[in-house]
Amino acid sequence: MQKVVIIGATSAIAEATARLYAARGAQLFLVARHAERLQDIAADLRVRGAKEVFHTCLDVNELQDHARVIELAWDSLGQVDVLLVAHGTLPDQARCEASVELALKEFSTNGTSTIALLTAIAPRFEAQRKGAIAVISSPAGDRGRQSNYLYGSAKAAVTAFASGLRQRLSKVGVNVLTIKPGFVDTPMTRDFKKGALWAKPEGVAGGIVRAADRGRSTVYLPWFWLPIMLIIRHIPEFIFKRIKL
Ligand SMILES: NC(=O)c1ccc[n+]([C@@H]2O[C@H](COP(=O)([O-])OP(=O)(O)OC[C@H]3O[C@@H](n4cnc5c(N)ncnc54)[C@H](OP(=O)(O)O)[C@@H]3O)[C@@H](O)[C@H]2O)c1
């Protein structure tokens, strides 16, 4: 029976992933901001086959609360087989350009908070000497683009941090998986016009569970974002500066 902790458990991608673990009879520990949503999701996961579902509230920007939540998760589950870090926001780039305060708050939600959580959690996995840490980053972190470089820079920090953590924890049998979903139809992207490149949370969730099972290092979901980002990363700077992306 798998023991799974999900931070940002009310996210559409996280909820779809939790359903897959519930169907396997997993024990889950859910962390998110809103108690009522957590209760609803926990009840649904129990119906779907979860052996047990614990939950607690956390605003990830309240760094002083991280230790309490981490301790509660390990006390509840005993050990953790899979940790999924899924919280995030899609900041308004123009508003972040106009406000240092907002820019840093959004950077904290999408970058610093994840680094803080993983720094505090890593020793637990090191002590267990097994398990998987799956972190949702983004292709937006592969190259800063004018349309969303605040979000992109925070995700770039997460990607680089996860890479270093993967190298460190691989020595003790713990895998760190970096997940880079492309456009996914979730509340975060509610206002976007959807097209052929868009994926559903359920499809991305399947990719996350498969990649975690297989001990993968980095996955683009769906896969075609890998060649797309390869091209975007390699556009020469003198051309990149002239185009709008
Ligand atoms: N959708 C996409 O196209 C896409 C693409 C690439 C990467 N991603 C990444 O995928 C992950 C999941 O996003 P999603 O698409 O599933 O969007 P979503 O449904 O909007 O989920 C975002 C979640 O983050 C939580 N959150 C935001 N700020 C928080 C805070 N301060 N403390 C605790 N939780 C907080 C939200 O909780 P509340 O309900 O309490 O606000 C919400 O549950 C994010 O890391 C996102 O950056 C998404």
Structure description:
There is one protein chain. The chain has 245 residues and is of the alpha/beta class. 50% of the residues lie in helices and 15% in strands. Helix 1 crosses helix 7 and helix 5 runs parallel beside helix 6. The longest helix has 29 residues. The protein is globular. It starts with a strand and ends in a 5-residue tail after the last helix.
Shape: globular
Q: Cα-atom Rg, whole angstroms?
A: 18 Å
Q: Which series of helices and strands comes N to C?
A: EHEHEHEHHEHEHEHH
**What profile does the largest beta sheet have?**
7 strands, parallel
| Total strand segments | 7
> Within the largest sheet, what's the order of strands?
3-2-1-4-5-6-7
In what range is the share of β-strand residues? Answer: 15-25%
Q: Report mean pLDDT, rounded to a whole number.
A: 98
* N/C terminus separation: 45 Å
Class from helix and strand fractions: alpha/beta
Provide the helix percentage.
Answer: 40-55%
What ligand species are in this complex? NADP nicotinamide-adenine-dinucleotide phosphate
Quickly describe the structure:
The protein has 245 residues and is of the alpha/beta class. The chain has 9 helices and 7 strands; from the N terminus they run E-H-E-H-E-H-E-H-H-E-H-E-H-E-H-H.
Layout: helices, strands, pairs:
Elements (H helix, E strand, L loop, with lengths): L2 E5 L4 H12 L3 E6 L2 H13 L4 E6 L8 H12 L4 E4 L7 H6 L1 H29 L3 E5 L12 H22 L4 E7 L19 H14 L3 E4 L3 H10 L2 H4 L5
Parallel strand pairs: 1-2, 1-4, 2-3, 4-5, 5-6, 6-7
Helix pairs in contact: 1-7, 5-6
Bound molecules: NADP nicotinamide-adenine-dinucleotide phosphate.
The site of NADP nicotinamide-adenine-dinucleotide phosphate has 25 residues, from helix 1.
